[in-house]
Write a structure and sequence with these properties.
The structure holds two protein chains of two kinds. Helices cover 35% and strands 25% of the residues of chain A. Chain A is α/β, with parallel strands linked by helices. Chain A has a domain of 131 residues: Rossmann fold. In chain A, strand 9 and strand 10 form a beta hairpin. In chain A, helix 2 packs across helix 3, helix 3 packs across helix 4 and helix 6 crosses helix 7. Chain A starts with 5 loop residues before the first strand and ends with a helix. Chain B is mainly α. Chain B has one domain. Chain B is built from ten helices and no strands. The chains are: A alpha/beta, B mainly alpha. Chains A and B meet through helix 2 of A and helix 1 and helix 4 of B. The complex binds adenosine-5'-diphosphate and magnesium ion. The site of magnesium ion has 4 residues of chain A, from helix 1. Adenosine-5'-diphosphate binds next to helix 1 of chain A.
């Protein structure tokens, strides 16, 4: 284990003519849950896309599980759940999962198991386009759990879910990490920080912190992550003023 | 290439169609109705029906698969399922093969039904073997599918995708030789028609109807038609990008 599970070096990404990631460097250790937190539009999705290897990058390097991000050998080892659910609306829940299981080379038994994990037992025969937003998001999540990937990149997986279900999903994430998987989970809700082993705090296309929640709170002297974020933003802006 | 993934993709596309029975019914019924209409419109000029009927047996699947594929592929692009599939262990050729299997199967059924109606009920007659029309019509369907896949990359909405039908297929149809022999066209248009794949689709169907054998120009037509299909597929495949901005 010399190399971190995810190694990002000086990553710059330009989208729609604007630079949206300004030289991000970070290493994410294996076997833990790392939260990627920051306000909407700060670049969380873009960073996750770069880690999965679907984002065109301007410069820098992204290595995942010891190989360049997006390389062929990684495609069965990295699971990605996009922010907007990416499943077929005109298929049932079970038909969606059976298809993705085939593509991922997972056993068909995995379908029944993952349906239970995301709390959709009994929904197998429902047409996906007739589901609610939260149910839809869970079908999309189930798809990525079919083949037990070593690394799971989850883009805002718990947004809009009821608190009981959110609790149970975080329980599932914890079990996956115990079993050795590495998870990166993004959220724009600072409250979710307490469930993570490590945090990457982002703002305006740059990382402003990368540490354990306890360390971040201690370093800023804040009571909660919201306060820590404000303190970090304040200090980085003072740095900017000093630098100019 | 992974045959299991391609087969699963084909089954998935057919299942989507099964959940949309109205589209499936339109695909199978509309060609029959149009053929019936042709027969009645040219009731007193049966020669026209006999000349136009056989090529239409190929133009129907070409047009419908063009439309269905361009909309289906646009949905895959906009719903994020394409991006998801391409981040999984799926080769582009598996996806294309899956679509080809599904729409090829629909084209076979479509062609068999409309042919049975045309030959058994509407007294359509051809010199060549009727069974040769099924593989030829299927090749036409695959050409339509390949072109639909390609244009889907340039459409942002389903409205735009549907507009590509008149923009992309109608000129090819007008220049194919069905309405007027290509040799009678302006020289520039004739040269243009030489590089349009639908020209060879029409020509092959007309030659089968006339009873030409594979050793004649028909063989070349089929070869060029297959080439046009492969070239369109390659262009379409080039629009499937694993990495996007
Ligand atoms: N497809 C796109 N084309 C152009 N700009 C984009 C695109 N997607 C996102 N952006 C821009 O990139 C920045 C980062 O977006 P994103 O990574 O989606 O942020 P987050 O996930 O944190 O909300 C935003 O300014 C957004 O407007
Ligand atoms: Mg986002």
């Amino acid at each position: 284990m010399d190399e971190a599970t995810i190694e990002v070096r000086d990553l710059r990404v330009v989208r729609g003519g604007h630079e949206v990631l300004h030289g991000v460097s970070v290493s994410v250790p294996g076997g833990v849950i790392t939260g990627l937190l920051g306000p909407s539009g700060c670049g969380k999705t873009t960073l996750m896309r770069a880690i999965v290897g679907v984002q065109r990058i301007a410069s820098g390097e992204v290595r995942v599980l010891g190989a360049p991000a997006g390389s062929r050998g990684l495609r069965a080892r990295v699971g990605y759940v996009t922010q907007a659910p990416a499943v077929y609306g005109d298929l049932t829940v079970a038909e969606n999962l059976r298809y993705f299981a085939r593509v991922l080379g997972a056993a068909q038994e995995a379908v029944g198991r993952t349906v239970g994990v995301v709390g959709l037992a009994g929904f197998e025969k429902r047409l996906v386009r007739e589901l609610s937003g939260g149910e839809l998001a869970r079908v999309s999540l189930a798809t990525a759990l079919l083949n037990d990937p070593e690394l799971l990149i989850l883009d805002e997986p718990t947004v809009g879910l009821d608190p009981v279900l959110r609790e149970s999903l975080w329980g599932t994430f914890r079990e996956l990490a115990h079993a050795g998987a590495t998870l990166v989970v993004s959220s724009h809700v600072m409250d979710e920080a307490r469930r993570c082993d490590r945090l990457m705090l982002m703002r305006d296309g740059a990382l402003i912190a990368d540490d354990t929640p306890a360390q971040i709170l201690a370093a800023t002297g804040a009571k909660d992550m919201e306060g820590a974020f404000l303190a970090l933003v304040g200090s980085s802006e003072r740095d900017e003023v000093r630098a100019t | 290439m992974n045959v299991a993934i391609a087969a699963a993709t084909g089954r998935r596309v057919l299942t989507q169609l099964r959940h949309d029975p109205r589209t499936l019914a339109l695909l199978l019924v509309v060609p029959v109705v149009l053929m019936l209409l042709m027969k009645t419109v040219f009731w007193n000029q049966d020669g026209v029906f006999q000349r136009v009927g056989p090529p239409l047996l190929g133009i129907f699947p070409l047009t419908s698969m063009f439309l269905v594929t361009s909309v289906a592929m646009l949905r895959e692009r906009t719903s994020g399922t394409l991006e998801r599939l391409l981040s999984m262990p799926l080769a582009k050729v598996d996806l294309l093969l899956g679509y080809a299997l599904a729409f090829g199967a629909v084209a076979v059924v479509q062609t068999v039904i409309v042919s049975m109606v045309a030959f058994a009920l509407l007294d359509l007659n051809i010199e060549g073997p009727i069974v040769a029309l099924v593989p030829l019509a299927t090749l036409n369907a695959l050409l339509g599918m390949a072109m639909g896949l390609f244009v889907s990359a340039f459409a942002a909405t389903e409205f735009q995708a549907v507009q590509f039908m008149p923009a992309f297929l109608l000129p090819q149809f007008l220049l194919s030789g069905l309405l007027t022999p290509r040799s009678a066209m302006l020289r520039g248009l004739e040269l243009l028609s030489d590089v349009l794949p639908m020209t060879y689709a029409y020509d092959a169907l007309a030659r089968v109807a006339a009873g030409d054998g594979l050793e004649t120009r028909l063989g070349l037509d089929i070869g060029l038609l297959a080439l046009g299909t492969v070239a369109s597929l390659a262009l379409g495949a080039a629009t499937l990008r694993r990495r996007t901005a």
